[in-house]
Amino acid sequence: MSDYYVRFIPEVINTSLNEHEIGLIERLHWGVSIPKSIFSDRILLADAGQNFETVKCPFCKASLMEWWGSAMSSAYSEDYGFQELIITAPCCNNVTSLHNLEYNFPQGFYRTMIEVMPEVNSQIRADEIADKLLEITGINWRIVHARY
Asked: Which domains are seen in the chain, by residue range?
């Protein structure tokens, strides 16, 4: 059986949380294991793991699967993490970011992430938690379901 994680990342990649926000988040009713907050000086990828299926252009919906790997390699540095996320889509020449591509299952980039590993047969109300995170921080949060 594989490990399953539910991750919450801010839509604004460089978001950091203050102590008050962290305290409110820790007191939310998660209904699962205790949330783990991850903070980084570098931009990292919250990937979907085995759930990852496709990536498409947000403008013309063309598949970017063949192009995406090299774009990710170009944006990444071993020393500094992901650096340049702004890209020109090879299909339609529109400018966007690697974060804003259409991923199936969703994934994205972060400096702040909240992660829970639900216990077997438990359910997490991810949409409700994302709404609460929005109330606390004023920022929309992306839900990443990851399986490894």
From this structure: 1-52+105-148 (3.30.70), 56-100 (no CATH)
Distances (CA, A) of 15 to 1, 12, 145: 34, 6, 20
The pLDDT of residue 76 is: 97
Cα–Cα distance for residue pair 11/62, rounded to 1 Å: 23
Q: What amino acid occupies position 131?
A: D
- Amino acid in the structure at residue 23: G
Give this prediction's pTM: 0.93
Candidates 8, 98, 15; CA nearest to 58 is: 98
- On whether the CB atoms of residues 42 and 80 are closer than 8 A, the answer is yes
pLDDT tens-digit readout, 99-111: 999 999 999 999 9
The secondary structure of 121-147 as a DSSP string is T----HHHHHHHHHHHHSS-EEEEEEE
Sign for the pseudo-dihedral over CA of 66, 68, 70, 71: positive
Q: What is the pLDDT of residue 120?
A: 62
